[in-house]
């Protein structure tokens, strides 16, 4: 709560309603409080000021306790759109509802906060992107270890992972970007939290620094009763690291407090094991444009766009996860590939299956709304329609050969629920239960009886109106109804002389009078009572159906996951068929052999001409470090990226854009492709480049694929060349990784005679007089030109400038000195401290493994002051 509101909470003189508001606000200080008053949600004090600015609605005032209280509000029937706008801006919203009938209330209507909505706890479709998970994360950090738990409340998916060792902030940052978390709860020290929150790449995530982290010494939840109900969610991982357990416990506790209830849709926790997945840091994900494009206005420019032919939202989310989390197990990969191949080769099977998927709704999120107790009649109607497709899908898959395709067969446990929904839920069920018409005729005898009574009532009204017109002689007599007076007889002023004595006046208007009769009042009581009973009975039957569906929630979630998998492999099969992809083959030895490989995204976006395919062969003994030379715009970067994407596609279980592909399993893809200044962080382009290269050197293994593009170009020629040559030597002799290094330092091509595993390839060019044609072909051998001046001419630089550049280039090339085999001597950036300096002596005596991050930071500050 804002400080001004805190003081108001303890101030007397407010009305009971305002005191009720302030009490609810004090319990939910971090959220904007939507306080239900009749047909509106009202906000007061600082909340009203904040909301009026965020929503661009009128700010008014209300007199209370002798002061003008700021006030604004939104209609309850359209509140969802306003809540969505606030959530997208990073606000939290607490919903305070009237929890008793105002007509039956004694004194002020009782109100309670029934739910707190945050970016990571939303369930409603209008607040969610259908093709991506909506993860709420929590991080519990102690020294150099951190447990990350993440939960998608809308689907129940629940995971945790453990990070430790150096680079913990970078590791947490990479994990949050991998899962694309929207909100993160931090149980960390303030320094760690400040470093994490200050990451520019995490700017869109809402961070909550938690001060009342539950557990203490005994690990008990601050909200014990709610948490204990989901303790079994953690039992699936008995060896869960303590940091992950604490992060997961608080995540469950936070969600339970947000909903004031335990959510039934939360699945058992699964530990995300990095050793089972290819490692992709945030730089690689960005540079390879897996999910998000580097240019926001470009359509169909990501791998996800090319591969996505899913018919369901569940399939789209699973496809995202497969792209983000390639596998390291050839058995699991081939299991997916078997299903893709069966669907690619069986066009009739594919068409029938995808046709059925068009009738399948988002069962995962329907389960989420069931578990969150906000399922609407239309949700159950969507679930009914989805389950109606299941028997036909199972029949199609019954004769399939691939295990992944046939796994959907045999889930008959949902037959009873499907039959119940078919029998009970109306074909055109309304969004809201109060609108009526939810339950089919013939399902519940009492509902049928009450509906018949309502229908008979309309007939009775028409008959009564005709009878009264004849009896009174008033030709324009009409029967009407409103919520205030109920049923009435409307008579114009001109006919008042004909009104019978048994008519009782209820209302006088400018041109007519309204009456009732004992007979009409008796009918109203009977009809109104039947209407209320009908609404109550429909609600009761509906809740019973919801309860039955909740009992089948685990089975529904299992089937939803299987359907999502089928939709995903069907999508990959369609992409393979349309784009002429082939099944990759895996070998026990590390390396790759790609024939006629293509870039899956670039080839789809070519407007003129055909994509030029290229070959690449690498092994771990003779050639694992490829130096790529050739002209600007020749296709070096495209060639490197397509290699990485082919490897990634293969290990996610997709066919690949090539004539053939034989691959070993790669544990990691690292990229250093382009950079920009980080001025706020004090880093230049070259500094960022060196930071990324340092990270690659630390993490790359003999099973990693590394892409290096123009390393060393951000400083002086000899500085950059020296670094580039040293990097080549280090990667060849120390890391032994599979490296594609594109460069314009042609001096480095001489290293093929010095370094084991080093080989040259180049992008070919056709020269004809002064004309140069980029052939886009990658061939063995080295290039000796970059054709930069030709590119400058293509860019329409002034002719005189281009001619001058050619003259200067000729002179420089005549005086060029080979430096490829020479270690350049340069003065160091910092003078080395004298050997007898006290700081040096302290460093030598220091046990670095025993230091905590905070102790190390303090020592650095002390040494800086002394040196």
Description:
With 867 residues, the protein is α/β, with parallel strands linked by helices. The chain contains 28 helices and 27 strands. Strands 13-23-24-25-21-26-27 form a seven-stranded mixed sheet, with helices on both faces. Strands 3-4-2-1-5-6 form a six-stranded mixed sheet, with helices on both faces. Strands 11-10-7-8-9-12 form a six-stranded mixed sheet, with helices on both faces. A hairpin with a 2-residue loop joins strand 3 (60-64) and strand 4 (67-75). The longest helix is centred in the middle third of the chain and has 34 residues, at 518-551. The radius of gyration is 35 Å and the shape is elongated. It starts with a helix and ends with a helix.
Quick take:
With 867 residues, this protein is α/β, with parallel strands linked by helices. It is built from 28 helices and 27 strands. The longest helix is centred in the middle third of the chain and has 34 residues, at 518-551.
Summarize the helices and strands and which ones pair or pack.
Layout: H1 3-9, H2 16-27, E1 32-37, E2 40-44, H3 45-55, E3 60-64, E4 67-75, H4 79-88, E5 93-98, E6 111-117, E7 136-142, E8 145-151, E9 158-164, H5 168-179, E10 183-187, H6 190-197, E11 206-209, H7 224-228, H8 242-259, E12 270-271, E13 279-280, H9 282-287, H10 303-307, H11 313-324, H12 330-345, H13 347-357, H14 363-371, H15 377-397, H16 403-406, H17 415-424, H18 445-472, E14 478-482, E15 486-492, E16 504-508, E17 512-516, H19 518-551, H20 553-579, E18 585-586, E19 591-597, H21 602-605, E20 614-619, E21 623-629, H22 636-652, E22 660-663, E23 668-673, H23 685-699, E24 704-709, H24 717-735, E25 738-742, E26 757-768, E27 771-780, H25 788-794, H26 799-814, H27 838-845, H28 853-866
Parallel strand pairs: 1-5, 7-10, 9-12, 10-11, 13-23, 18-22, 21-25, 21-26, 23-24, 24-25
Antiparallel strand pairs: 1-2, 2-4, 3-4, 5-6, 7-8, 8-9, 14-15, 15-17, 16-17, 19-20, 19-22, 26-27
Helix pairs in contact: 1-2, 11-20, 12-20, 13-15, 13-20, 14-20, 15-17, 18-19, 25-26
């Amino acid at each position: 709560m804002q400080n001004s509101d805190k003081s108001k909470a303890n101030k007397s003189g407010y009305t009971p309603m305002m005191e009720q508001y302030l009490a609810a606000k004090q319990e939910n200080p971090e959220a904007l409080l939507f306080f239900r008053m009749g047909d509106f949600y009202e906000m007061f004090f600082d909340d009203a000021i904040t909301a009026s600015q965020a929503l661009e609605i009128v700010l008014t005032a209300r007199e209370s306790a002798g002061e003008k209280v700021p006030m604004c509000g939104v209609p309850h029937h359209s509140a969802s759109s306003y809540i969505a706008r606030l959530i997208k801006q990073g606000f939290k919203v607490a919903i305070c509802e009237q929890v008793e009938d105002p007509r039956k209330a004694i004194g002020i209507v009782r109100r309670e906060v029934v739910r707190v909505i945050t970016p990571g706890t939303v369930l409603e479709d209008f607040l969610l992107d259908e093709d991506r998970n909506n993860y709420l994360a929590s991080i519990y950090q102690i020294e150099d270890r951190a447990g990350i738990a993440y939960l998608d409340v809308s689907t129940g998916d629940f995971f945790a992972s453990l990070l430790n060792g150096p680079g913990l902030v970078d590791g947490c940052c990479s994990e949050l970007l991998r899962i694309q978390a929207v909100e993160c709860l931090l149980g960390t020290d303030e320094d760690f939290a400040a470093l994490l929150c200050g990451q520019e790449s995490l700017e869109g995530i809402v961070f909550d620094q938690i001060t009342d982290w539950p557990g203490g010494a005994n690990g008990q939840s601050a909200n014990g009763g709610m948490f204990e109900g989901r303790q079994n969610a953690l039992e699936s991982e008995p060896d869960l690291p303590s940091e992950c357990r604490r992060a997961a416990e608080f995540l469950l506790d936070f969600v339970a407090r947000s909903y004031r209830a335990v959510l039934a849709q939360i699945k058992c926790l699964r530990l995300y094991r990095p050793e089972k997945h290819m490692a992709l840091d945030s730089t690689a994900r960005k540079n390879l444009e897996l999910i998000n494009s580097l240019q926001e206005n470009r359509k169909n420019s990501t791998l996800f766009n090319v591969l996505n032919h899913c018919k369901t939202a569940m399939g789209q989310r699973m496809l995202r996860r497969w792209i983000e989390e390639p596998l390291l197990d050839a058995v699991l990969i081939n299991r997916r590939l078997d299903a893709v191949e069966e669907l690619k080769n069986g066009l009739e099977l594919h068409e029938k299956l995808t046709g059925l998927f068009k009738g399948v709704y988002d069962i995962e999120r329907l389960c989420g709304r069931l578990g969150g107790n906000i399922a609407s009649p239309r949700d159950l109607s969507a679930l009914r329609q989805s389950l109606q497709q299941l028997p036909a899908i199972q029949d199609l898959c019954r004769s399939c050969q691939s295990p992944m395709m046939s796994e959907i067969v045999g889930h008959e446990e949902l037959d009873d629920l499907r039959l119940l929904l078919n029998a009970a839920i109306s074909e055109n069920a309304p969004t809201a239960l109060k609108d009526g018409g939810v339950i089919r005729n013939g399902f519940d005898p009492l509902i049928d009886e009450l509906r018949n009574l309502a229908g008979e009532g309309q007939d009775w009204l028409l008959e009564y109106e005709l009878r009264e017109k004849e009896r009174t002689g008033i030709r324009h007599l009409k029967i009407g109804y409103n919520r205030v007076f109920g049923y009435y007889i409307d008579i114009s002023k001109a006919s008042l002389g004909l009104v019978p004595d048994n008519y009782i006046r209820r209302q006088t208007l400018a041109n007519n009078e309204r009456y009732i009769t004992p007979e009409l009042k008796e009918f109203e009581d009977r009809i109104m009572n039947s209407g209320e009973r009908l609404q109550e009975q429909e609600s009761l039957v509906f809740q019973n159906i919801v309860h039955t569906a909740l009992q089948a929630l685990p089975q529904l979630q299992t089937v939803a996951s299987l359907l999502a998998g089928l939709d995903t492999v069907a999508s990959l099969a369609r992409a393979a068929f349309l784009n002429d992809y082939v099944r990759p083959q895996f070998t026990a030895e590390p390396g790759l052999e790609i024939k006629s490989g293509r870039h899956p995204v670039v080839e789809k976006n070519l407007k003129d001409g055909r994509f030029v395919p290229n070959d690449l062969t690498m092994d771990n003994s003779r050639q694992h470090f490829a130096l790529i030379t050739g002209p600007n715009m020749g296709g070096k970067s495209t060639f490197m990226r397509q290699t990485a994407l082919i490897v990634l596609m293969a290990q996610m279980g997709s066919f690949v854009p090539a004539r053939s592909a034989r691959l070993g399993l790669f544990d990691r893809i690292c990229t250093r492709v382009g950079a920009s200044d980080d001025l706020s962080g004090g880093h230049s382009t070259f500094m960022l480049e060196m930071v990324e290269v340092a990270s690659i050197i630390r993490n790359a293994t003999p099973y990693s694929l590394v892409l290096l593009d123009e390393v060393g170009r951000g400083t002086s020629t000899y500085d950059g060349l020296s670094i580039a040559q040293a990097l080549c030597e280090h990667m060849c002799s120390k890391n032994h990784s599979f490296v594609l290094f594109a460069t314009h330092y042609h001096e480095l091509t001489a290293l093929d005679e010095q370094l084991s595993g080093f080989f040259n390839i180049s992008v070919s060019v056709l020269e004809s007089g002064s004309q140069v044609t980029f052939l886009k072909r990658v061939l063995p051998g080295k290039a000796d030109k970059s054709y930069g001046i030709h590119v400058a001419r293509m860019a329409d630089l002034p002719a005189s400038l281009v001619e001058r550049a050619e003259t200067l280039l000729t002179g420089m090339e005549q005086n060029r000195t080979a430096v490829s085999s020479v270690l350049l001597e340069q003065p160091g950036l910092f003078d080395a401290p004298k050997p007898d300096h006290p700081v040096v002596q302290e460093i030598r005596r220091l046990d670095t493994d025993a230091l905590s991050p905070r102790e190390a930071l303090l020592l650095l500050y002390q040494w800086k002051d002394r040196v």
